[in-house]
């Protein structure tokens, strides 16, 4: 997605060979126009799948997730990482280990919102080690719902998440695929910049 590639080139900061900082438009400050375009792109790619719910994980998945849901005309559900005072019964839960943070979070979604028969589009901001996406897949399975696709804003193709998640057989669409962050440079995967 050209607009996103341009934004990453202009504003992304390579912090190391593995970490890209995009706080100016995705992880802290949010660019609503870019999020709208991202939502339209996800909707265009998954419109034929009969999506009934978009599911993401707090917090940075919410902005692209809500825009995709708006375009598809569905609700957005965000999995919580911390226990909520008002969410206690009828919870689906999965363990998500973060290699980056070296901690395990129990993510949860209420059975009130994710239901048997739902066709679910999973959205997340980054695909790195794939653990968040695998956790979301687990929640959908527990609900007896169907994973209709996975949409990722930025995939770091040099980490193992892409391979792991594609091995599940679900369709994964990443709007920007980064091949390398070596030498302080962002290198996109060739042929990935289609629209
Ligand atoms: P995984 O979910 O793919 O297994 O990845 P990992 O455990 O490594 O990621 C942990 C957190 O770090 C996630 O956000 C993920 O989005 C983020 N992350 C991973 N790689 C990068 C990167 O190169 N740049 C940036 N900016 N973030 C990265 P989180 O802790 O859930 O944060 P948030 O959603 O609350 O913002």
What does this structure look like?
This protein is α/β, with parallel strands linked by helices and 195 residues long. It has one domain: Rossmann fold (3-Layer(aba) Sandwich). The protein contains six helices and ten strands; from the N terminus they run αββααβαββββαβαββ. It has helices spanning 2-11, 23-27, 32-46, 62-72, 131-143, 161-166; strands spanning 13-14, 20-21, 53-57, 76-79, 91-98, 103-110, 119-127, 146-156, 172-180, 187-188. The chain has a six-stranded mixed beta sheet with strand order 4-3-7-8-9-10, sandwiched between helices. It has a two-stranded antiparallel sheet with strand order 1-2. Strand 9 (172-180) and strand 10 form a beta hairpin. It is globular and about 50 Å long. The structure holds guanosine-5',3'-tetraphosphate. The site of guanosine-5',3'-tetraphosphate has 21 residues, from strand 2, strand 7 and helix 5. Converts the preformed base xanthine, a product of nucleic acid breakdown, to xanthosine 5'-monophosphate (XMP), so it can be reused for RNA or DNA synthesis. 5-phospho-alpha-D-ribose 1-diphosphate binds at residues 128-132. Its EC number is 2.4.2.22. InterPro entries: PRTase-like, PRTase_dom, Pur/Pyrimidine_PRTase, Xanthine_PRibTrfase. Keywords: Cytoplasm, Glycosyltransferase, Purine salvage, Transferase.
């Amino acid at each position: 997605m050209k607009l996103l590639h341009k934004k990453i080139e202009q504003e992304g900061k390579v912090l190391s060979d593995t970490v890209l900082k995009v706080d100016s438009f995705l992880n802290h400050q949010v660019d609503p126009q870019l999020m709208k375009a991202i939502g339209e792109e996800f909707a265009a790619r998954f419109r034929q799948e009969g999506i009934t719910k978009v599911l993401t994980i707090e917090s940075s998945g919410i902005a692209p997730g809500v825009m995709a849901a708006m375009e598809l005309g569905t609700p957005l559900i965000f999995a919580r990482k911390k226990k909520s005072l008002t969410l206690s019964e009828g919870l689906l839960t999965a363990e998500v280990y973060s290699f980056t943070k070296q901690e395990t979070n129990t993510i949860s979604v209420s059975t009130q919102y994710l239901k048997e028969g739902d066709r679910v589009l999973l959205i997340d901001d980054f695909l790195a080690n794939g653990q968040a996406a695998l956790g979301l897949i687990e929640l959908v399975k527990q609900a007896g719902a169907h994973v209709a696709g996975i949409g990722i804003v930025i995939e770091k193709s040099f980490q193992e998440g892409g391979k792991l998640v594609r091995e599940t057989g679900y369709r994964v669409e990443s709007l920007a695929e980064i091949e390398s962050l070596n030498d302080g440079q962002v290198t996109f995967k060739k042929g990935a910049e289609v629209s």
